[in-house]
Design a protein that fits this description.
The structure is a single chain. The chain is α+β, with helices and mostly antiparallel strands. The chain folds into three domains: about 110 residues; about 160 residues, Alpha-Beta Plaits; about 70 residues, Double Stranded RNA Binding Domain. The strands form two sheets. It has an eight-stranded mixed beta sheet with strand order 2-3-1-5-4-9-10-11. A three-stranded antiparallel beta sheet has the order 6-7-8, covered by helices on one side. About 50% of the residues lie in helices and about 20% in strands. The protein has ten helices and eleven strands. Strand 7 and strand 8 form a beta hairpin.
């Protein structure tokens, strides 16, 4: 067995041992009756379950291979049984390879797969009205892909332009594996096309930026209320509307980090406050997690990227019907389908490359 495979087996044994320890802890009555202890353990158990089950299936196959080989090596076994053992061995070896491949993939993506709620922020960049229209197109692309996957979409904040574009749009997406699919979208997106506002038929280049934030549960991140300053004001809007008559706009400022969130979409102060806290919690979670990731596994950023909006990750070329992802040097001539939510081929390629890079650095 190679050095890489030995390291993988060692890690899997470690995870299975941890899973068994958690089972023992959860069965302890004092832990079972204490939510503060039980909830984190249950969450950790849930993250480990898929890979531990897969590992146990793999070990069962390995035992079957050993049994078949013993039969083949036994000179007293009759020919009929020898032939059956050979056939079984062929099948088991195929299963072993398949299980091992799945184990490697699950091992390096299990943390991502466990995140089933994200907040996406799409903002127009250089390009004026055309950039805002591109931001709208990106929002449509993501929501249509989410609908294909059966995920739940929740609009949180819209900053619309007169031409129907978006200066900014923030929305939540919930569903199994949502981070493992859309986590690659953070960064700068560039479009090359003839804008609706262009009368001469000239191709323009415009840009939008995307941020993808894991949305933590409240137990995943603790925020000291004393660290958050809340400002309440009247929401802006056309004069005379009821939205202006009450102080419903909320701005939250996290003083230790300087991170701020403003929310004014709802007429209800309570709804704006709830949404603002969700976004603040996600931004803080990403802020602290990005530091942890940098310390733990800096190599992963070589694939997904930092999520920094200044990092150009993709170009959408309409005249050539081409999408190019610059991180993996992939060009697909199916822009028309991708913009209607058919992103599977693009995301699959990103995931495959990401897994390969992570395995190299395991």
């Amino acid at each position: 067995m190679s050095e890489e495979n030995n390291a993988l087996m060692s890690k899997l044994n470690e995870l299975e041992s941890r899973y068994e320890d958690i089972e023992k802890e959860i069965s302890n009555p004092s832990v079972a009756s204490n939510p503060a202890q039980l909830i984190p353990l249950t969450k950790e158990q849930g993250k480990l379950k898929a890979i531990v089950n897969q590992y146990r299936e793999y070990k069962t196959v390995i035992e079957g291979i050993k049994d078949a080989q013993e039969i083949l090596n036994d000179p007293k076994v009759e020919d009929d049984f020898i032939e059956l053992a050979r056939e079984e061995l062929r099948q088991l070896e195929s299963q072993r390879d398949s299980h091992f491949e799945q184990l490697r993939n699950i091992l390096v993506t299990s943390d991502d797969m466990a995140i089933d709620a994200i907040i996406m922020e799409v903002r127009s960049g250089t390009g004026g009205d055309e950039a805002a229209l591109f931001a709208r197109d990106l929002y449509d692309m993501y929501t249509k892909y989410a609908e294909r996957k059966g995920w739940k979409i929740e609009p949180l904040s819209f900053g619309a332009t007169e031409m129907g574009g978006f200066r900014e749009v923030i929305f939540g997406v919930k569903g199994a594996g949502v981070w493992s699919e859309l986590g690659y979208e953070g960064g700068g997106h560039r479009v090359q096309r003839v804008p609706e506002t262009e009368s001469q038929g000239r191709i323009h280049t415009s840009a939008a930026t995307v941020a993808v934030l894991a949305e933590p549960e409240e137990i995943d991140i603790e925020i000291n209320p004393d660290d958050v300053v809340e400002h309440v004001s009247r929401a802006g809007g056309p004069g005379g509307q009821s939205v202006n008559k009450v102080s419903s706009a909320i701005k939250l400022e996290h003083t230790p980090t300087g991170i701020t969130v403003s929310m004014r979409d709802e007429k209800s102060q309570h709804k704006n406050r709830t949404k603002a806290w969700r976004i603040l919690r996600s931004r803080l979670y990403e802020h602290y997690e990005s530091k942890n990731r940098a310390q733990r596994e800096s190599q992963r950023k070589s694939m997904i990227g930092t999520g920094d909006r200044s990092q150009k990750i993709r170009t959408y070329n309409y005249p050539q019907n081409r999408v190019t992802d610059h991180r993996i040097n992939l060009s697909l001539y199916s822009l028309d389908r991708i913009m209607t939510g058919d992103m599977e081929e693009l995301i699959t390629a990103l995931k495959k490359h990401d897994i390969e890079q992570r395995l190299k650095n395991l």
